[in-house]
Amino acid sequence: MTELWPYARPGAPAYGEWLLGRAVSPRYVADALATRIGPYRHSLLPMIVHSVLGGLLMLLGPAQLLTAARGRPRAHRLLGVVFAATVYASMAGAGLYLARTAPADAFSGAAFWIVLAVILVGTVFSVTFGVLAAVGGFPDLHQRWMLLCYGFLLTAPLLRLEWGALPWLLPGLPMTDVNQVAIMHLGSVVALGALVASRTLDRRGRLAGAGRTWAPLPVLVAAHLAGAAALARIGYALLVTAGPGRRLLWAYLLPYAVAYAVMAVGARRAGRQGRAWAREEWLLHLTGLCLAPVLSAGSAPLLERGLGLDPYTALVAGVSIGGGVLAFTATTVVSLRVMYAREVLRRAAPAVTAAVSPVGGTVS
C-alpha cells in the first residue's frame, strides 16, 4: 500500500523497497524500479487506487471468512458489500493502468501484461458470480466463487514474496526474470488453494439430485491424453528455446505436478470413503487441470497473431494463463452441477407431493 509513495513524492519512505533491498540487495531493487518511473507516473492515480484498495482487500478477505465461520450473517453481509465494492474499485484502477500502458511497456513485458489482464477479468467475474450466487440462494457456490476471487487477489502479495525468495534459489536473476518465473505457476497455485479451502469447508458427502457424474472415465481419459500431448508440445518448445526456457519449464511443471497429485489423491480418497460429491468436484477440477496445457498451447498462436508477439513471448503468456482460466472454468462447471441438481429436485417435488397426498385428495 506504500509502494507507490516515491513515485508521487520522490524521497518518500518506501518500506517494501527497504525490506526487499535487505532481503536480496539494494542493486536488485534499484535495477528493477529504474524503468517503472515513466509508466507508473503516467497512471499514478489509478495505481494508487488499485494498490491501496488492494491492501485493504487483503484484510477484508480474512475478516469475511471469520464472520462466516462464527455465524454472524449481518456482519458477513455488510463486509461482503464492502468487499465487492472494493474489488470493483481496485480492479477499475488496475484496468485504467493496463489500458494506458502498452503491453511491451509493462513490468517484465507483454506476457506479464497479459497475465495481469486475465487475473483482472477473473477477479471481477469471480466476485460478480459470488454476489449472484448469494442473491440466488446458493451459499455453497457463493463460498467457492469468493474463495477463488480472493485467490486471484493473493497473486499480488505472493508475487512480492517471490521477489524476495526466488533470488535465493536463482542467484543473480533480475526482478524482471523473477516475474517471468512467478507467472508460470501463480495462477495455478492460488486456484489450487481456493479449491482446497472449498473442499475443506464443504463437509457434504453427497449432493442431492446430482445423479450421474459429469466426469466419467472416457472424459477423464480423453482429458489426460490431450493434456499429455499439450504438455509434451509445451515442454519441447521451451527446451529448444535458448535462454530461460528450461527454468520456466520447471517453474511450470513442479507446481503443476503438485496440483495434479492433490486433486488425484483427493478424488481417490473421497471415492473410497463413499463421498460422491467430494469425488465429483475433485474430478471436475482434475479434468480442468489436464486441459489447461491444451488451452495454453492453443492460445499461444492466437496471442502471437492477435497481439503481434514473438512465438516465445506468446507461449510464455499462454502457459501462464492456462491454469487460472481452467480453474475458473472448472468452478463454473461445478456451479452448473449444483444448479442442475437443485433444478432436478425442484421438478421432482410435485411428483413427491402427489405421491404422499392423503386419501381423497387430488392427485395431479
TrEMBL record:
Keywords: Membrane, Transmembrane, Transmembrane helix
Transmembrane segments: 44-66, 78-99, 111-135, 147-170, 182-201, 213-236, 248-270, 282-303, 315-340
Keyword Transcription: no
Annotated InterPro entries: DUF2306_membrane
Pfam families reported for this sequence: DUF2306
Protein name as annotated: DUF2306 domain-containing protein
Taxonomic source organism: Streptomyces adustus
Organism phylogeny: Bacteria, Bacillati, Actinomycetota, Actinomycetes, Kitasatosporales
